[in-house]
Amino acid sequence: MPERDAYHDTGKVDRVEEYKGIIRRIISDYARWKPSYGEVIVEAICTDEAGHYELIYSGWHEHRRIHGTVIHIDVRDGKVWVQHDGTEDGVTDELTRAGIPREEIVVGFLSPEERKLTPYAALREA
Known about the structure:
The protein is of the alpha+beta class.
């Protein structure tokens, strides 16, 4: 019988699916809050197949264009990569409170050297 690789281990697949559900819920919770200024559309983009999750603001405030990512999280190789965190309190803390272990979270917007100084995983980009 062929051996299964670490990613295709049933337990790991179940955990990854649980992580995706947690991320979707957190993104959806943030998407309920509209900025207090301007005519801004809040978009939650959640693609389970690609493991890609974003919260984006777009619109106008007076004569100024607003467009940008508030939260960007990817799930790659069983790890949760926080690529951008524009929240006030920090989405990484919310991920851990929701049940994702710190060693499964990579703070991707920090350099590999800076990641070593955090309580989170210190992986390098693949």
